[in-house]
């Protein structure tokens, strides 16, 4: 269950961020922000010849106190013993737009493929938003379709 | 909180509502909030959506909508106002008004009329029979025509797209806020390709118009604005309407997903299509009046039920895509056939020119004129419009004459012609030149176009040859040679022309030399004549003088 979904622009400012437990929204914001560093690190580490979607998917980013963040290419994650283990996953598009998803790992049924499919849906919805001529790249995403899709992700995984 | 009550009511309603129009609580952005109060008086579309708590809607189209959790709606309520309240108010209206859609339908069109006039469109309260009680989202014919015209102003080809930027500029003129326009686009661009087809454009335009009229934007594309619906269910225009042709053109365009490629083919042949498609019969009931169109429509209709029955959001595009190639194949064949029918049969190949029996004289005249300025050259340019047929016959006659009568004596033949020509009236030399040239030209023409000469034509040329010679004779005022020539001409009908041509070339040279000689002789004789005449004059004068002297001497003696 995705507890937070964020779309970060190329310049590392959020285009869209939404989390379910609104009371911890700020925390999620921070979390996403910190994960950006990891994302950038991964991007730079990958090099320039990466156009594969596999590369787009960054996997678990890095571990934190409350949440478990798995880096895709780094060493295996450090599992924390906290009950609410939230995993952060990253995904980068070719245009350097980053998707960060924080997932509650209490539901361990979430496999890598599921995460990938969720990111794929995110990416598709994002491109649909881009297709809207009234959307200026760099604006915050207010698309209802996008919202609904994110909501579905949050609900389904719940 | 209102949201809670609304949600409860809402979720209770689905079970009651038939043809479910479940309003899932969805927080609309601020753009709709200020319209809420007005909305309660108006009927609002109840787009069927999937609700986790409600039974799946039975209405065919499904939108790209995701059921929101009840709790989630609460979350958002703090920041945004709930829109469902007006929806709830209308929901009870929806059901009873479903069957009797006339009354509520009257209201929205009136409201719309005020706005629509701003767009210079007049609406009439018009309720089309439909399964959807969402009157505000139904496009009337007048609206449709207006939209189509606007579409055409942006994109002449009704079957093609309007690009995003063009549409953006156009819709920005409506002075709606950008977020609203963005949302409208999101609703109407069903396939999310960044471009608007005609039905998408109509839907977007309709949404804009409704929005301007104060209707809150729906959460999902109403069923009546969906492209399939727009293409299938839109009432056919009246045939008497002058916009009919353009409208009918737009109608197949409205079946855009299927007809897109097809119409692109047809766009070039629009004018030809309309009489042609009338021959095609459409099988759709809705297209009763519109029997014209294209057989494509029948195929499109076949595709439509499939589309309607399937899930809209994701499968819609795939269905439309599937339908496109299908319709394309049908349409291409039918249209091509229709076009073939409509086309005139190919013009028959030009008939081969036959002997211009009567035109031979005219041709000779033509030969005369161009040949006059021509000098004595070996090869004269053939006259432009000279049919060769008489010429070879003439030449054949020449050759025949040379062969038969005068073959051993070509000079006799030539001098015959030469005398024949010398007997001309005024300018013997010029005429002599003309006729030899005339003979040359026909011979040349004959040589240049041997293929045109046909043996069977030899007999008819005999007659024209006579006629040819007659104008010559008339010009030359000689009569004997034509008779003599006519004789051998008739007898020479059977000669092959190939041999004649060879002989004609030889004859040409001989004739040319003879001509030169004759000319020289003429010149000499002319000089002689002049000299002699002068001498004669002198002699006369001497004689006169002598007679005078004699008379002077005589009277003296005669007395």
From TrEMBL, chain A:
Family: Belongs to the TRAPP small subunits family. Sedlin subfamily.
Gene name tied to this protein: TRAPPC2L
Locations listed in the record: Cytoplasm, Perinuclear region
CDD domains from the UniProt entry: TRAPPC2L
InterPro entries found in the cross-reference section: Longin-like_dom_sf, Sedlin, TRAPPC2L
Gene3D superfamilies hit by this protein: 3.30.450.70
Pfam family membership, one: Sedlin_N
Signal peptide start and end residues: none
Swiss-Prot/TrEMBL keywords: ER-Golgi transport, Transport
Name of the protein in its database record: Trafficking protein particle complex subunit 2-like protein
UniProtKB/TrEMBL annotation, chain B:
Residue span, EH domain: 143-228
Record has Lyase as a keyword: no
Region named Disordered: 1-111, 269-515
Superkingdom of origin organism: Eukaryota
Record PROSITE patterns: EF_HAND_1, EF_HAND_2, EH
InterPro entries: EF-hand-dom_pair, EF_Hand_1_Ca_BS, EF_hand_dom, EH_dom
Record's compositionally biased regions (Polar residues): 440-449, 473-482
Compositional bias (Basic and acidic residues): 299-309
Full protein name: RalBP1-associated Eps domain-containing protein 2 isoform X10
Organism: Vulpes vulpes
Protein encoded by which gene: REPS2
């Amino acid at each position: 269950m995705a507890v937070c979904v964020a779309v970060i622009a190329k310049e590392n400012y959020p285009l869209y961020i939404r989390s379910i437990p609104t009371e911890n929204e700020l925390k999620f914001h921070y979390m996403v922000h910190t994960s950006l560093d990891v994302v950038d690190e991964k991007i730079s580490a990958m090099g320039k010849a990466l156009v594969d979607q596999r590369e787009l998917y960054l996997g678990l980013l890095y571990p934190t106190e409350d949440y478990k963040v798995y880096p895709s290419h780094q060493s295996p994650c450090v599992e924390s013993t906290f009950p609410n283990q939230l995993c952060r996953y990253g995904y980068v598009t070719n245009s350097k737009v980053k998707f960060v998803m924080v997932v509650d790992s209490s539901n361990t049924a979430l496999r890598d493929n599921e995460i990938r499919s969720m990111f794929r849906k995110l990416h598709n919805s994002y491109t649909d938003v881009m297709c809207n001529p009234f959307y200026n790249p760099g604006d915050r995403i207010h698309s209802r379709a996008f919202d609904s899709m994110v909501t579905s992700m949050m609900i389904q995984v719940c | 909180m209102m949201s809670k009550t609304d949600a409860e009511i809402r979720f209770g309603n689905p079970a009651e509502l038939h043809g479910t129009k479940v309003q899932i609580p969805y927080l609309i952005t601020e753009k709709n909030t200020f319209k809420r109060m007005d909305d309660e008086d108006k009927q609002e579309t109840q787009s069927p959506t999937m609700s986790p708590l409600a039974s799946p809607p039975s209405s065919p189209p499904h939108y790209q909508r995701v059921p929101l959790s009840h709790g989630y709606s609460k979350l958002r309520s703090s920041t945004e106002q709930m829109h469902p309240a007006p929806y709830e108010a209308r929901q009870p209206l929806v059901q009873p008004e479903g069957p009797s859609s006339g009354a509520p339908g009257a209201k929205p069109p009136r409201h719309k009329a005020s706005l629509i006039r701003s767009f210079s469109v007049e609406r009439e309260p018009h309720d089309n029979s439909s399964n959807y009680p969402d009157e505000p989202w139904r496009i009337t014919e007048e609206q449709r025509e207006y939209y189509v015209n606007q579409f055409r102003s942006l994109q002449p080809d009704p079957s093609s797209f309007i690009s995003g930027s063009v549409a953006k500029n156009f819709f920005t003129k409506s002075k709606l806020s950008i977020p609203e326009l963005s949302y409208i686009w999101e609703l109407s661009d069903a396939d999310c390709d960044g471009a608007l087809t005609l039905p998408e454009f109509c839907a977007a335009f309709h949404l804009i118009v409704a929005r301007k009229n104060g209707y809150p934007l729906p959460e999902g594309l109403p069923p009546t604005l969906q492209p399939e619906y727009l293409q299938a269910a839109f009432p056919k225009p009246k045939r008497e309407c002058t916009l009919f042709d353009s409208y009918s053109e737009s109608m197949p365009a409205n079946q855009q997903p299927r007809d897109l490629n097809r119409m692109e083919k047809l766009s070039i042949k629009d004018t030809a299509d309309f009489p042609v498609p009338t021959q095609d019969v459409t099988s759709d009931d809705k297209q009763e009046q519109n029997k014209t169109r294209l057989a494509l429509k029948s195929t499109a209709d076949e595709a439509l039920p499939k589309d309607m029955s399937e899930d809209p959001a994701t499968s819609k595009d795939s269905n439309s895509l599937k339908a496109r190639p299908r319709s394309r194949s049908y349409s291409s064949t039918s249209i091509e056939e229709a076009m073939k029918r409509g086309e005139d049969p190919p013009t028959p190949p030009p008939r081969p020119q036959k002997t211009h029996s009567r035109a031979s004289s005219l041709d000779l005249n033509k030969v005369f004129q161009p040949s006059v300025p021509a000098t004595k050259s070996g090869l004269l340019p053939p006259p432009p419009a000279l049919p060769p047929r008489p010429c070879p016959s003439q030449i054949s006659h020449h050759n025949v004459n040379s062969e038969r009568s005068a073959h051993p004596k070509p000079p006799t033949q030539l001098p015959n012609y030469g005398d024949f020509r010398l007997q001309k009236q005024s300018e013997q030399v010029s005429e002599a030149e003309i006729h030899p040239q005339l003979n040359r030209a026909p011979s040349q023409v004959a040589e240049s176009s041997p293929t045109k000469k046909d043996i069977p034509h030899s007999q008819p040329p005999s007659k024209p040859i006579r006629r040819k010679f007659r104008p010559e004779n008339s010009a030359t005022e000689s009569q004997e040679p034509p008779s003599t020539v006519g004789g051998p001409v008739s007898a020479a009908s059977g000669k092959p022309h190939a041999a004649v041509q060879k002989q004609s070339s030889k004859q040409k040279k001989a004739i040319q030399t003879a001509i030169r000689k004759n000319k020289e002789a003429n010149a000499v004789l002319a000089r002689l004549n002049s000299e002699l005449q002068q001498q004669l004059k002198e002699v006369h004068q001497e004689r006169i003088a002598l007679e005078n002297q004699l008379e002077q001497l005589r009277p003296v003696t005669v007395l």
